[in-house]
Amino acid sequence: MSGRADPDATPGARSEARAARERALALLYEADAREVGILELLSRQDLPPSPLAVELIEGVATDGAAIDELLEEVAVDWSVARMAPVDRAILRLAAYELAHRPRTPTAVVLNEAVELANLYSTESSSRFVNGVLATIARKLRA
């Protein structure tokens, strides 16, 4: 975990953190859709993402295999490859946060992920994302 202050710690900073998560989600989704490495895509950005977005993207890139193993373990009857691409990106981001950003409250991670699913994915995605992440939270933050 970085030594930076938690961007979710104050209400005014929450919108900044939300924007960082949205940017990270967009880049993870783009990398997946274009089948390019996320770090390569990150390095090509004309407008660099915020430090939190970079931390999230780099964390998912670094721990991607472990995150995907965890998702496979808890998402009953769903392989990571079979998940909707937006859901997969949201789950990877939130799983990274649950595992590596303990100062971000669990409720914030789950709420942000569900909101992203509501905004950018299918009607049933928010329930799926919430269920998978609730299981991961119990496993990692019990």
Notes on the protein architecture:
By secondary structure, the protein is mostly helical. Helices cover 72% and strands 0% of the residues. The protein contains six helices and no strands. The radius of gyration is 14 Å and the shape is globular. The model is unreliable at 1-5 (pLDDT under 50).
What is the CA-based Rg, rounded?
Answer: 14 Å
Main sheet makeup: none
Low-confidence stretches: 1-5
Per DSSP, the total helix count is 6
Fraction in beta strands: under 5%
Order of helices and strands: HHHHHH
Helix content: over 70%
* Class computed from helices, strands and strand pairing: mainly alpha
Tell me the span between the first and last alpha carbons.
19 Å
Shape, principal axes of CA atoms: globular
* Overall pLDDT: 91
Strand runs, count = 0
